[in-house]
Amino acid sequence: MAAIVACFGNVLRGDDGFGSAVAERLLAVGLPAGVSVLEVGIGGIHLVQELMPGAEVLIVVDAVDLGRPAGTVVVQRPDVLDVAALSPDRRRDELADMHLATPEKALMVARALGVLPETTLVVGVQTTDTDRVGQGLSAATARAVDVAVAEVGRLLAEHVVSGG
Questions:
Q1: What local confidence, expressed as pLDDT, does residue 98 receive?
Q2: Is 164 part of any domain?
Q3: Residues 6 or more apart from 60 whose CB is under 8 A from it?
Q4: Domain of 79: which CATH number?
Q5: Cα distances (Å, whole numbers) of residue 36 to 86, 101, 107, 135, 142
Q6: Tell me, what's the pLDDT at 164?
């Protein structure tokens, strides 16, 4: 597998469903051979399992809160905790959620297992209502879906060898 695009989020929590909306759009437009789109939802352990056979590139899509204007799409390299460097108490606290509901937890476990690709990027959208119970994205987040899809396409073109 050349690349995995892992879309996180909970469609029952307002803008937290952003990743799901991006996954749906990516599957509709189609992607190059060797690229897999996963709608991870809130089960990051699924992503870790998918990384086990190996991937060259991982792009995570998720709602973020970076204090930017709503709907702003950002691309960044995640800062992934090194499990081996944590105290036993902190390690237990960090790994208590065995579903690995957040990208941070899933990436931390993938790194600990040696399956996190060197090229790992996050495409995030600044959201406003991830705590709202209910389906549907805010207007600003909905407008950001196409921008995020374009960013994923750009990153894949930049980091994935064609036909890989």
A1: 62
A2: no
A3: 6, 7, 8, 78, 103, 107, 120, 121, 122, 123
A4: 3.40.50.1450
A5: 32, 20, 17, 25, 23
A6: 43
Tokens of 118: 């060197």
Q: What is the DSSP string of 12-76?
A: TBGGGGHHHHHHHHHHHH---TTEEEEEEET-HHHHHHHHTT--SEEEEEEEE-SSPPTT-EEEE
Q: How many domains, the chain?
A: 1
- Its domain, for residue 145, covers 3-159
Distance, in Å, from the CA atom of 37 to the CA atom of 7, rounded to the nearest integer, reads 8
The reported pLDDT for the residue numbered 130 is: 67
The answer to whether position 147 is within a domain reads yes
AA identity, residue 28: A
DSSP E strands in the chain: the ranges are: 3-8, 35-41, 57-64, 73-76, 119-126
CB atoms closer than 10 angstroms to residue 91: 16
Contact between residue 68 and residue 74 where contact means Cβ atoms under 8 Å apart: yes
Say if residues 51 and 21 touch (Cβ distance below 8 Å).
no
pLDDT < 50 regions, the chain: 163-164
Residue type, 89: D
Tokens of 128: 């406003």
Distance of CA 125 to the CA centre of its chain: 11
